[in-house]
Amino acid sequence: MRNFNITVNGTAYQVSVEEVGGMPAAPVAAPVAAPVAAPAAAPVAAPAPVAAAPVAAGNTVNSPMPGTILDVRVSEGAAVKKGDVLLILEAMKMENEIMSPADGTVKQVLVGKGASVNSGDVLAVIG
User: Fold this and answer.
1) What is the pLDDT of residue 50?
2) Is position 25 within any domain?
3) pLDDT of residue 83
4) Rg of the chain taking only CA atoms, in angstroms
5) CA-to-CA separations, 80 to 2, 32, 64, 102, 124, in angstroms, rounded
6) Is residue 96 a contact partner of residue 89, using CB atoms and an 8 Å limit?
7) Is residue 26, in this structure, part of any structural domain at all?
8) Domain assignment present for 6
9) How far apart are CA 24 and CA 53, in angstroms?
10) Count of domains forming the chain
11) Residue 118's closest CA among 68, 46, 60?
C-alpha cells in the first residue's frame, strides 16, 4: 500500500493505493519535508447583477426563445408598421426575424448586436 495526499477542487484527501500485479515498484525515498496543507481556495465573488433599464409603457417585444441578437434593424424614435422586422435573433443555428406587434414608434431598444437573451426578455418597446 502507498499513501498519497490529493487535492481536488481545493479539498484535500488522503488516499491509499494498492499496487496489483505487474512489475514491483521501485523504492521511493522518504519525503524530506512534512506534507504541506493545500492552500485555501480564494472565494469567488459573484458577478454584479446588471441593472435593467426601465421599460417604457407600450407594446413590449419579448424574446420568444433564448439566443443571440445578430442584428438590430431599428433605432429609438423610428416609425414602424405591424410586421416590420425589428431584430434578428439567432437561436438553434437559425436566424429568426422579430417583428413589430403593432404600428407605432420605437420607444426603446433594450438589446444590442451580440447580446445574449433568454426566453421572455424584453427586446424593445413600441409606443
Assistant:
1) 40
2) no
3) 93
4) 29
5) 74, 77, 20, 8, 12
6) yes
7) no
8) no
9) 68
10) 1
11) 68
**Owning domain of residue 66:** 59-126
C-alpha cell at 89: 435573433
**Cα 84 from Cα 72, distance rounded (Å):** 12
CATH code for position 66 = 2.40.50.100
What pLDDT sits at residue 9? 79
- Give one DSSP letter per residue of the chain, joined into a string: -EEEEEEETTEEEEEEE---SSSPPPP-PPPSSPPPPPPPPPPPPPPPPPPPPPPPSSEEEE-SSSEEEEEE---TT-EE-TT-EEEEEEETTEEEEEE-SSSEEEEEE---TT-EE-TT-EEEEE-
- Tens digits of pLDDT across the chain (127 residues): 788 888 887 888 888 877 776 655 556 555 555 555 556 655 655 444 444 555 667 789 999 999 999 999 999 999 999 999 999 999 988 999 999 999 999 999 999 999 999 999 999 999 8
Tell me what pLDDT residue 115 has: 93
